[in-house]
Specification:
Layout (H helix, E strand, L loop, with lengths): L6 E2 L11 E2 L10 E4 L10 E5 L7 E4 L1 H13 L4
Antiparallel strand pairs: 1-5, 2-3, 3-4, 4-5
Length: 79
């Protein structure tokens, strides 16, 4: 079994995804956006990109890894 991809050089490689921004985001574009690819090698993963660089790289996480990361942030301490 091969390892999951961890990033894409450009988020435009993730064709047909809908990028979402947090409802806490301001209009200043100082946030991240997430997408859930449904096809290709990234299907089932969560993609995260910088909203200031929409054509830049995207990091890819398993849903469980992302949930653990955001839960740790909400608790205010690293795991």
């Amino acid at each position: 079994m091969s390892a999951l991809p961890r990033k894409t050089p450009t988020s435009t490689d993730l064709r047909g995804v809908r990028w979402l921004r947090s409802s806490y985001s301001t209009g200043a574009n100082n946030c991240v956006e997430t997408a859930r690819p449904s096809a290709g090698p990234w299907a089932g993963l969560l993609a995260v990109r910088d909203s200031k660089d929409p054509a830049g790289p995207a990091l890819l996480f398993s849903p469980g890894s992302w949930a653990s990361f955001t839960a740790a942030i909400r608790r205010g301490r690293p795991r």
